[in-house]
Design brief:
globular; NADPH dehydrogenase activity; 371 residues; 12 helices; alpha/beta; 15% strand; two-stranded antiparallel sheet; binds ligand FNR; 12 strands
Length: 371
């Protein structure tokens, strides 16, 4: 029978994804100890492997302890964090999926509560009371909104340290066995705050013109690409539009994607928003596929592979996005929390794998015998 595009493999450098279903990175605020994933993360991520996804992303993973989104985020800033990630990577591989890690520096939005605690910014006093080396840094001394403290503007030395942190975390991601690194350049975190003229008011080579505002993003991507094995894919998540008037827009994203492609970035994961309080809440449901137009235009105009994300709910919707040439990969977030077996169910909705051959071997043959 005819195979849906959603279940066609995709080769990216040396990695073959078995299908186009990606689990979007989702913060769990559940690290054990200092930034280490534990049993929660093993179960949370592995269930998507059993559920048939081709590629699973670990949540935003901090490159520096002072730059976590939340106080219980996972990180790859220390060698102690490699082994617990490797245990998860190995289990996911044994169960037929690829796994990537999203590396992030939260910048001026470091230190917020989990949504179940209110999702608000913590004060620097609250953060320092944890005994951890928290720092809110940004391109300029401009706060992310009324509830956020003013960040320290990074010096050139501070910028150089941040580039080193991304490289060191990339090296650990390789040792942990990850197949993909995704750089988090979206949602108002550090790199996004350099891109947008709203948050970046610098007058040195990192601010002012678009070329200058893009400089740190390009440097980090170049540094990471040089350290990440050539056969492994590199993804970048961007906010295709930052959500402010006259801020970072889609034309800018097309230019950035072209430049990142030239550096060796393989896939552009097209999200949006998050720059400041008014736009930061990515958990608000908006229209079905509301960010797909960003993916479509960047894919066409920058001639790059893209990953669409945002309120993509079922197989037929995902299949149409691929058939219409609007993306190469489909990332699923909340709908995969609702249904960890999203990929298998999407296959069935598209008339694919009706014999359960893509399911775990422990389960598939029993399901095939079911009346
Ligand atoms: C997210 N999102 C997110 N994005 C990201 O780039 N890094 C992250 O760590 C997180 N964390 C996170 C946690 C939770 C619980 C949710 C629900 C979302 C955004 C997520 O990856 C996705 O882009 C959005 O949720 C939109 O897709 P869905 O949920 O509509 O499929």
């Amino acid at each position: 029978s005819h195979r849906p595009r959603l279940f066609e493999p995709l080769q990216i450098r040396g990695l073959e994804l078995k299908n186009r279903v990606v689990i979007s990175p989702m913060c769990q605020h559940s690290a054990e100890g200092r930034g280490r994933p534990g049993a929660w993360h093993l179960v949370h991520l592995s269930k998507f492997a059993l559920g048939g996804a081709g590629l699973i992303f670990v949540e935003s993973t901090a490159v520096d302890p002072g730059a976590r989104i939340g106080v219980r985020d996972v990180g790859l800033w220390s060698d102690e964090q490699v082994a617990p990630f490797k245990a998860i990577v190995d289990f996911v591989h044994e169960n037929g999926a690829a796994i990537g890690v999203q590396l992030a520096h939260a910048g001026r939005k470091a230190g917020s509560q989990a949504l179940w605690e209110g999702g608000r910014a913590l004060t620097m006093e609250q953060l320092h009371a944890t005994g951890e080396p928290w720092r809110r840094v940004g391109p300029s001394a401009v706060a992310a909104g009324p509830e956020w403290s003013v960040p320290e503007a990074l010096t050139p030395d501070g910028i150089a340290e941040i580039r080193q942190m991304f490289v060191a975390a990339t090296e650990r991601a390789d040792r942990a066995g990850f197949d993909v690194v995704e750089l988090h350049f979206g949602h108002g975190y550090l790199i996004a705050s350099f891109l947008s003229p709203h948050s970046n008011r610098r007058d040195d080579e990192y601010g002012g013109s678009r070329e200058n505002r893009m400089r740190l993003a390009l440097e980090v991507a170049r540094d990471v690409r040089a350290r990440w094995p050539q056969e492994k894919p590199l993804f970048v998540r961007i906010s295709a539009v930052d959500g402010t008037e006259d801020g970072w827009g889609l034309d800018d994203s097309v230019v950035l994607a072209r430049e990142l492609k030239a550096i060796g970035v393989d896939v552009f994961d097209c999200s949006s928003g998050g720059l400041s309080d008014e736009t930061r809440n990515m958990n608000v449901p908006r229209g079905l596929g509301f960010q797909v137009p960003f993916s479509e235009r960047i894919r066409r105009e920058a001639d790059v592979m893209t990953q669409a994300v945002g309120v993509i709910l079922d197989g037929p919707q995902a299949e149409a996005i691929l058939q219409e040439g609007r993306a190469d990969l489909i990332a699923v977030g909340r709908q995969a929390l609702y249904d960890p077996y999203w990929a298998h169910h999407a296959a069935h909705a598209l008339g694919h794998d009706l014999r359960f051959e893509g399911w775990p071997t422990q389960h598939g043959p029993w399901l095939a015998k079911r009346a």
